[in-house]
């Protein structure tokens, strides 16, 4: 749960992994991209889940749509996007959304 | 990938499952709630992923925020929300967002 007040931006990345191998570089690249994202201006938080069958959802939260767009254009991230489309994902969808409200029982509320 | 054109509404539900048991009713309730959601007015699509450690993300997509709000108020769903808060989730956060754009390589684009 981010402590940020709405509105803020969510980037919802849904993907189906291709058959993975330990040598395909995915795990290392995913870790590195998350570290890099966390250092970008306007970054709020990030969360990920993936099923055993390879379907996963990652959502990153940003102060504004401009911050999210800037992250999309970071050079190392562009290279990871290219490798993802070519090697790591059978299908993927990116949705850019404005969070209007949030609630829950998590700490920080 | 929904074939709907933005803007549409995303409800992002992030949760940490409590220690689960086969008898806690969660799996059956989750299946039933998904079936019920798919029959609601304005429903577009739904996707879920959960890590082995119990952290999960479910996103449901709706034509409008009003459709998403109506689903939140469906009697059986209210009961499931109560059981979730009490029995199934250690933490959860719900975010209601407006999808402004989407892209990807999935069928239907």
TrEMBL record, chains A, B:
<dbReference type="InterPro" id="IPR052936">
    <property type="entry name" value="Jasmonate_Hydroxylase-like"/>
</dbReference>
<dbReference type="InterPro" id="IPR011008">
    <property type="entry name" value="Dimeric_a/b-barrel"/>
</dbReference>
<dbReference type="Pfam" id="PF03992">
    <property type="entry name" value="ABM"/>
</dbReference>
<protein>
    <submittedName>
        <fullName>Polysaccharide biosynthesis protein</fullName>
    </submittedName>
</protein>
<feature type="domain" description="ABM">
    <location>
        <begin position="8"/>
        <end position="96"/>
    </location>
</feature>
<dbReference type="InterPro" id="IPR007138">
    <property type="entry name" value="ABM_dom"/>
</dbReference>
């Amino acid at each position: 749960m981010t402590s940020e007040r709405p509105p803020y931006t969510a980037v919802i990345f849904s993907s189906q992994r291709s058959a993975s191998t330990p040598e395909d570089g995915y795990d290392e690249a995913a870790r590195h991209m998350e570290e890099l994202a966390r250092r970008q201006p306007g970054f709020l938080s990030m969360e990920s889940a993936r099923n055993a069958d390879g379907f996963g959802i990652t959502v990153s939260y940003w102060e504004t749509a401009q911050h999210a767009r800037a992250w999309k254009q970071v050079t190392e991230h562009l290279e990871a996007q290219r490798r993802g489309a070519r090697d790591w994902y059978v299908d993927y969808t990116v949705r850019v959304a404005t969070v209007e409200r949030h609630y829950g029982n998590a700490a920080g509320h």
